[in-house]
Amino acid sequence: MKYRRLANTGIYVSELCLGAMTFGGHGPFKAIGALGQAEADALVHRALDAGVNFFDTANVYSLGQSEEMLGAALGPRRKDVIVATKVRGRMGDGPNEIGLSRVHIMQQCEASLKRLGTDYIDLYQIHGPDPQTDIRETLEALTDLVRAGKVRYIGCSNLPAWQLMKALGVSRQHGLAEFVSTQSYYAIAGRELEREMVPLVNDQGLALLPWSPLAGGLLTGKFTREGETDPDARRVSFDFPPVDKARGFDIIDVMREVSGVHGVSVARVALAWLLHQPAVTSVIIGAKRLDQLDDNLGSVGLTLAPDELERLDAVSVLPVEYPGWMEMMQADREPGTTRDWSRFTRK
User: Fold this and answer.
1) Nearest 5°: CA angle at 40, between 39 and 42?
2) Mean pLDDT in residue range 80-109
3) pTM as predicted
């Protein structure tokens, strides 16, 4: 296992982070995974033995079951790892049991600490924007948790780039704790993050933690243009996140060729591609079985050749949109340069 620094914090996290969304299976999360404690223990212990020191969950995953099971699985080894969880989702029927108000954040932090069986959370993340709560109120509540020693660092998830930059500005203006990371959807079949968020994290020195790196199972190799090859695959019953499937299968065609050269799974190529992206700090993987976890863990040892990366980039690159094409046209400042305008003409 290899380790990368989490933004400018000084702590190092494994290149792969084990996500615990499959633990519990309460309510809508049953479609993602319904693992019991024994199965969760086996996955967590295998990950630990492989050098994984980073684990992610959320209070809303199976209404707290995931946090409870992760805490139990880590046991006395909790002190050796970085634990991340989230707050925002609905945790009860009351009008204030959702969102990013001071009331909800303080209540849920205490509840998460109890469920995880710990007295501190390493990375506490807001699970998305809350248009009903001023971001300053949210950041002040999170800062108080940091100053109380209940939270080490704060991060965000699923924010648009402009909202993340606004939050950083508010933190700096008022002397509040700053987000050190963003957990965002990013996969070779879902590269929209590269338009705004990747430039932001590179500019601000934040950690990028991709979730659903296999595009909800589409990139596992279990699906073809004709349909699924595994009736138990998650996308059969839970078709998420949204993917342009026609484009996705073109990408998978190239990934199959690359995987054949290396003698590895398509899924391992998808994860390795993300690990080759400079902005990425740690990729969040999920598994329901030990063989799935073992295959994912193997991605850290897969080095893609430059020509393979070029082929994968060519088939998956986003079409250039404004203002991107204007920036590209204005980028060359050399005197006497003749620009090739045909690059920006849709064919």
Assistant:
1) 65
2) 98
3) 0.93
